[in-house]
Write a structure and sequence with these properties.
This is Biopolymer transporter ExbD. The protein has 151 residues and is α/β, with parallel strands linked by helices. The chain has 4 helices and 5 strands; from the N terminus they run ααβββαβαβ.
Length: 151
């Protein structure tokens, strides 16, 4: 048995029920801003002179944090992520890795060498980077490859 008050509300023809969407839209924008601010964007600058090899069984790296990028061009020259910085020899690579390792550890991250070697480069140049990094105290190395043949 409905009360008189409920019968009046249900029986009234002049009132339409409206849902106010403003608080929900405000909440969606607040959540959107929160996720944009809380997320971190990791950008690895690629050297246009380096054409990585293709590895069909490659896996995408889970985490991009703590990477120290070293490019090895097809002519055997070594460059940092910022391609304007060129390393003349293994000692310069070692010094650079030590400096970057300290920066990454200060952030609380585990440093990892991200080696981007050209597909035409000799392995001896890649080995030079791996050995210099190991002497600098970074023994985790990941290689940059394409998962499929680009055409």
């Amino acid at each position: 048995m409905a009360s008189n008050k409920l019968r009046k509300v249900v029986g009234a023809d002049d009132d339409e029920l409206k849902v106010d969407m403003s608080p929900m839209i405000d909440m969606v924008f607040l959540l959107l801003i929160f996720f944009i601010v809380a997320s971190t964007v990791i950008v690895v600058k690629q050297d246009a002179e380096v054409d990585p090899p293709v590895a069909e069984n490659s896996k995408k790296a889970k985490d991009g944090k703590g990477r120290i990028v070293i490019n090895v061009r097809s002519d055997g020259t070594f460059r940092a992520e910022v391609s304007s910085l060129e390393f003349p020899d293994a000692e310069a690579i070692e010094d650079y890795v030590k400096k970057k390792k300290d920066e990454e550890k200060a952030k609380g991250l585990t440093p990892i060498i991200h080696l981007r070697g050209d597909k035409g480069v000799s392995f001896k140049h890649v080995r030079t980077v791996i050995r210099a990094s190991a002497r600098a105290g970074v023994d985790n190395v990941i290689f940059s490859v394409y998962g499929f043949d680009k055409k």
